[in-house]
Design goal:
The protein is an alpha+beta fold. The protein is about 35% helix and about 25% strand. The chain is built from 4 helices and 5 strands, in the order E-E-H-E-E-H-H-E-H. The structure holds zinc ion (2 copies).
């Protein structure tokens, strides 16, 4: 598990998102936030970035399918890394801070 040190929550689990998630949360547009499988953790990406970076194939239907990504072929992750590198201004989130915003 990837951990982050949060000012509020201390050591907490962590994930990254694209730069637009903050705004979607503020407007409560939760249906535009997609969870995708990244190499060692899940990421949250807005619907626009999914389209822009061709991330459709990484969208998770069920966020509990965490281990299945290890079975994917190398090309699957090469494509992901390429898209990931193009996503600038990613935000690192403390999972508990995020949950508080969603509630
Ligand atoms: Zn985005
Ligand atoms: Zn926190």
């Amino acid at each position: 598990m990837t951990l982050i040190l949060c000012n509020k929550h201390g050591t907490s689990s962590f994930f990254e998102s694209c730069e637009h998630i903050r705004e979607l949360l503020k407007d409560k547009r939760y249906d535009e936030i997609k969870e995708i499988q990244a190499i060692v953790y899940h990421m949250k990406v807005c619907a626009k970035c999914i389209e822009k970076y061709g991330l459709e194939k990484y969208i998770l239907c069920d966020s509990s399918t965490y281990d299945t990504n290890l079975d994917e072929p190398d090309e699957f992750w090469d494509d992901f890394e390429e898209a990931y590198d193009k996503m600038n201004n990613r935000i690192a989130w403390c999972a508990r801070c995020y949950d508080e915003l969603v509630l």
